[in-house]
User: Which sequence fits this backbone?
């Protein structure tokens, strides 16, 4: 859309253009400086550090691929990769499913709808640390409110955070209460679906389900794609919940990747190994994102080719 | 929003059909309310539970079945919890940190966003793509080198690592949000100013910025929220307890009072109050901000 205005005055364009060019780079200079110091530079530095053994105090020692080899024999590293993956693969789809369903339900003219939306949205913006502490108590095996609820329907609840089997499901369950962000975005998307599409579908005799499936869902796929990617990137960085609620236990059942990186870096001071771990995660995220983007060609529907 | 039932055209002959339709509509609404009320209760439950526990005497906590409304609310739990460790100090620290980060984000992200929304320069699309790509980079990848750099230049145990990146447009999300907003401001405005001899910076500062107050407020709110909620960064960089933020304070509190649930809940609930206040005061901005960046660029 930008190209139209450029063509109009051809005469002084080159000097004009040059000045605008310089201005452009000057304006993004802060970002470039930040990128070099805080993102791009450190990523490369992390790669270099990952080939060393370094406790920060003494000089780093070059050890080649030893850190990466060590990872393969480190049950905790593998466990943390497993925990994080499992959590991500289960919680992201559940998250999106419930966020979507809620958004559809909340996209109705109904008495008190604003209040409902607020209630479902709020938990997602509250401080994670506070939410984590509260959920420790909610999930308390004997006196917690969650097992009380279960007891009402005759289920004898497990000991959740204290149980190697149930600790991870408990954290997944808890994460479902934070679906507000995705829900609001879906809601905005739903409100943006052109009305005439529904009318056309109605003329064709489509019922509610059919309209949902053949009109709404395809129109929502760009939003879903965005949320899938954001969801994966965020869940791969879960830290506060295991740190405050389970300390990675019991028996490493909630040893999330970032927690393990944190321990290696800031408790055992093996910066080299921690860097190697973080690089593996980085590649993991990159590959996953690319895979999702690639697959999106088959399932994401863009109405028209001109998005904006 | 849901005018999905098109106005019923045949008024006269469809009298019984219409009442049936009304019935169906009524049932639909009723069941929707039921589902939403059940869901809302479920979502509120942890917080109701927390508030309830925070107002109980210690002796009433371990009862089964639990009692939701304490016989006599024990309000003292709140001052007790908040003075057991210096939460007031931590709150001030966090507010200071948030204020600095808000300033940094608003100034630097808007500058960068302006270049993407308003200026035509070689390499713009590549740089913009890079900016968006940084949103996908997990924090831990840059963490260790950053920490090492900060420790070498003596910034560990100060607020600088938590503030300086914000002055260099480190928060790509806000760059994106502001860029999207700037795109909606009519370009004729800056072209008129340019003709009058305004520099690019003047266009940015005198025209685009004042017109972007709503978006800037949104950035401010989100930054406040993030700073208030931040855990990982403060945990790594702040060692002196006198520098702690509220979230770190809560973590410390939990270490010391691991199962004193009444006090723990009082502290947790207190930490949520500023977030809730900001939300309810600025609710509309919030939602607009989230939905504005909902998608593509």
Assistant:
């Amino acid at each position: 859309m930008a190209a139209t205005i450029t063509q109009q005055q051809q005469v002084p364009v080159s000097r004009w253009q040059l000045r605008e060019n310089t201005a452009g780079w000057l304006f993004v200079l802060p970002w470039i400086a930040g990128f070099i110091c805080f993102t791009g530079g450190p990523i490369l530095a992390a790669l270099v550090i990952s080939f060393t053994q370094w406790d920060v105090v003494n000089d780093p020692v070059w050890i080649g691929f030893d850190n990466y080899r060590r990872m393969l024999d480190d049950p905790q590293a593998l466990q943390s990769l497993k925990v994080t993956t499992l959590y991500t693969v289960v919680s992201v789809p559940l998250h999106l499913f419930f966020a979507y369903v809620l958004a559809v339900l909340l996209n109705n003219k109904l008495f008190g709808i604003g209040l409902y939306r607020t209630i479902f949205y709020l938990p997602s913006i509250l401080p994670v640390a506070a939410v984590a502490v509260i959920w420790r108590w909610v999930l308390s095996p004997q006196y917690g409110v969650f097992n009380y609820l279960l007891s009402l329907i005759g289920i004898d609840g497990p000991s959740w955070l204290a149980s190697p089997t149930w600790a991870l499901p408990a954290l997944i369950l808890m994460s479902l209460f934070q679906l507000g962000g995705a829900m609001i975005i879906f809601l905005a998307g739903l409100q943006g679906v052109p009305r005439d599409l529904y009318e056309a579908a109605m003329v064709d005799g489509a019922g509610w389900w059919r309209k949902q499936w053949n009109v709404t869902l395809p129109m929502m796929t760009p939003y879903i794609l965005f949320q899938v990617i954001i969801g994966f990137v965020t869940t791969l960085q879960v830290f506060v919940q295991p740190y405050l609620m389970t300390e990675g236990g019991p028996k490493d059942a909630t040893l999330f990747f970032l927690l393990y990186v944190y321990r290696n870096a800031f408790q055992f001071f093996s910066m080299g190994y921690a860097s190697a771990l973080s690089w593996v995660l980085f590649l993991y995220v990159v590959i996953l994102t690319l895979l999702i983007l690639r697959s999106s060609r088959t399932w994401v529907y863009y109405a028209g080719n001109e998005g904006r | 929003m849901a005018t999905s039932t098109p106005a019923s055209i045949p008024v006269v002959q469809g009298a019984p059909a219409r009442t049936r339709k009304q019935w169906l509509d009524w049932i639909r609404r009723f069941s929707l309310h039921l589902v939403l009320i059940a869901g809302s209760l479920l979502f509120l439950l942890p917080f109701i539970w927390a508030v309830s526990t925070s107002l109980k005497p210690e002796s009433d906590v371990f009862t089964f079945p639990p009692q939701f409304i304490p016989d006599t609310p024990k309000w003292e739990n709140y001052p007790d919890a908040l003075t057991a460790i210096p939460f007031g100090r931590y709150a001030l620290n966090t507010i200071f940190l948030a204020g600095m980060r808000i300033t940094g984000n608003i100034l630097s992200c808007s500058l960068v966003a302006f270049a993407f929304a308003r200026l035509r320069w070689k390499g713009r699309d590549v740089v913009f793509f890079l900016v968006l790509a940084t949103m996908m980079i997990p924090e831990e990848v840059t963490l260790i080198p950053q920490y090492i750099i900060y420790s070498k230049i003596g910034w560990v145990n100060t607020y600088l690592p938590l503030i300086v990146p914000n002055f260099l447009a480190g928060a790509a999300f806000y760059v994106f949000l502001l860029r999207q907003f700037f795109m909606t401001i009519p370009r004729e405005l800056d072209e008129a100013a340019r003709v009058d001899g305004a520099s690019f910076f003047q266009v940015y500062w005198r025209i685009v910025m004042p017109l972007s107050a709503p978006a800037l407020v949104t950035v401010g709110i989100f930054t406040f929220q993030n700073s208030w909620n931040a855990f990982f960064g403060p945990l790594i960089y702040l060692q002196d307890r006198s520098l702690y933020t509220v979230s770190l304070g809560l973590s410390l509190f939990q270490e010391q009072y691991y199962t004193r649930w009444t006090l723990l809940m009082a502290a947790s609930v207190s930490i949520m109050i500023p977030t809730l206040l900001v939300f309810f005061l600025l609710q509309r901005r919030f939602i607009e901000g989230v939905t504005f960046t909902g998608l593509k660029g």
In short: The first strand of chain A starts at residue 52 and ends at 53. The longest helix of chain A spans residues 13-49. The beta strands of chain A are 52-53, 61-62.
